[in-house]
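Hi team,

Below is the intake form for Flagellar hook-associated protein FlgL from Erwinia aeris. Please confirm the fields before the structure is written into the shared record.

FORM ID: S-0412
PROTEIN: Flagellar hook-associated protein FlgL
ORGANISM: Erwinia aeris
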Amino acid sequence: MRLSTTMIYDQQMRGISDSQASWLKSGEQLSTGKRVVRPSDDPVAAAQAVVLSQAQAETSQYKTARNFATSSLSQEATNLSQVTSVITQAQTAVVAASTGTLSDEDRSTYATTLTSLRDQLMNLANSTDGNGRYIFAGYKSDTAPFTQDASGNVAYSGGDTAISQKVDASRTMTTSHTGSQVFTSLTSNAVAEPDGSASESNIFTTLNTAINSLKQPLANADGATKDAAAADMAKANRGLRNSMNNVLKVQSEVGTQLSELDSIEAKSDDTALSQATQMSNLVDADYTSTISSYTMKQAALQASYKVFSSMSQMSLFKMNS
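The structure came back. Fields below:
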């Protein structure tokens, strides 16, 4: 077969072009740090990387959700801690005010103390987070959950459903309890009333019972009035005990969920690290082998240039084919 100058020239040019493309590809891998820059570089790895990137995005989304959940639960935990402190002070005041030897002035002083504690509790029940949303209002977080009338009676008007958050693919948890769950509910083992009537579940009503009783003068009262006042104070004492147990139950749930979030986060971090490693194995370049390949391809390209230059000086290129 007769070889023409044009054929040899084209063959040499294709060789140079291929060497140059291969060298540039290695350079691109070095500059980007990626072995797979486009799907054509490795179709199988590219397809697996797409699926893996979706899993990474989901992992990241759940991490954000857990951050919100942790923030919300931490704020609730702080408020519940303050609530238990106020209830403890109220219990101490009620026990001290139940002494039968107190004067009417002393009883009035305790009534003032309990009124102040009730107002503190009301403020905590209507507390907001950093975004102005009411913590204990459920999904009605744009309005105060508790309202108080002129007589001091407090009622709950917040949402009936606690706020929940999906914090992992298989876990949804309550991130903010409703005010009714915290301030107007009882545990299953609540202390019953001696006469068999329903136990008071509204902590504000319990405090008002004690306040109203202490405001009533007993210096010149008959035995029946004094007995009724003592019964009211005893009821208030039971009510505060029941309310405290209920708040402690909610507080325990919040603490358990915060601990669970820590465990889920630790597991998620391991998953994220594993995903990052898999992604790196799929698309990242091995710098040692890539540098070696780059150097060799550069040498091959230079050799191609030299061969082409040498052959172009041969007489075959100067003759007509």
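SUMMARY LINE: The radius of gyration is 39 Å.

Thanks, M.
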